[in-house]
Amino acid sequence: MPAAAAMRGDITYSGRARRVAVLRCLVAALVVTILLAGLAALIFWLVVRPKPIDYTVTRAVARHFNVTPPQPDDATANATFYLTLAANNPNRRVSILYEWVEFRVLYGEGEAAQLATGDAPAFAQPHRNETRLDVRAVARSVHVGEQTARELRHDLAAGQVGVDVRMHARVQFKVAGVRSRRYDLQAFCSPVVIGLAPSSARSFQSVPCDAAIS
Q1: Element spanning 157, H or E
Q2: Domain residue spans in the chain?
Q3: CA 153, CA 143: separation in Å to the nearest integer?
Q4: pTM recorded for the entire structure
Q5: Nearest 5°: phi and psi at 111?
Q6: Angle made by CA atoms 204, 206, 207, in degrees to the nearest 5
Q7: Which of 7, 51, 55, 4 is nearest to 186 (CA)?
Q8: Would you say 80 and 64 are in contact if contact means Cβ atoms under 8 Å apart?
Q9: Of 126, 125, 124, 127, nearest to 92 (Cα)?
Q10: pLDDT in tens, 51-102
Q11: Using CA atoms, how far apart are residues 210 and 207, in angstroms rounded to an integer?
């Protein structure tokens, strides 16, 4: 009996030892995988050295801008915005594929009112390239609050209006023929001050944008 008990103890110990050894191998493999992934990411960064994409509103014109007299819950705005956004890709090895691009023109602080929307066609941007997107964003009988209507009419009377421009795009990055997963790219440009006189387009001041990728 003592010999049988000792044998069972040896078997139990041997089983535990094997499980510990397997666990150690798994942990070691995980650590090696993490280190290799980190090394690959470091090598990729050293080779590619990705730089942020720069976005700038270089032109903004508003035509046929008008607001109905502010009446409770019944004021509307109409306008056509002609925007040019310069997208500068300074990277030597990274090109960008834009699957779709949307634009919104917003007015007001805090919860800004959306005045107009527009879009740009899909395109591929090579490395070390600046692409200019010409966008037509239309506001057609857009309902605005009484306070917003009053402020818009004040700006129209003053001859210029300040808006925010938001760009939202779905993009992929391409390096040496390999495409990344899809990302959401957003750019926020503010304030974009648009003169309403016919000659004001020549004196427009370019507005740099803040961009984020998620």
Answers
A1: helix 146-158
A2: 14-48, 54-213
A3: 14
A4: 0.79
A5: -80, 85
A6: 125
A7: 55
A8: yes
A9: 127
A10: 899 999 999 999 999 998 766 567 899 999 999 999 999 999 899 999 999 9
A11: 10
